[in-house]
Amino acid sequence: MQVKLLNARKSLEIAGSTLNVVELIVYEVKPRDTINKISFNHSISVSLLRNLNQMIAGDNLIAGDILLIPIFEQVVSSPEG
Fold first, then answer.
1. Which of the 8 DSSP states describes residue 78?
2. Alpha-carbon dihedral of residues 35, 36, 40, 45, nearest 10 degrees?
3. What average pLDDT does the chain have?
4. Which CATH number covers residue 64?
5. 0.90 cut: is pTM over it?
6. Which residues contact 66 (CB under 8 A, 6 or more apart)?
7. Structurally, how many domains does the chain consist of?
8. Inside any domain, residue 78
9. pLDDT tens string 21-47
């Protein structure tokens, strides 16, 4: 199950940078999911996914667990000329 929560516009301060969250996904862990696989599929670092879901290293995922996955605003820089 994957449900998008709209109107989740918030900012996260990470390593001195501010990232704008435009959407949160409620993700239900499936059999054979790993934290690495989930983070890769959603373009988020493992450490950020763990921190946002209050997980510590060594915590195991179990099918049926729920994770919140942020979708960040795309920042596009234009070439200077």
1. P
2. 80
3. 77
4. 3.10.350.10
5. no
6. 26, 27, 28, 29
7. 1
8. no
9. 777 889 999 999 999 999 999 989 898
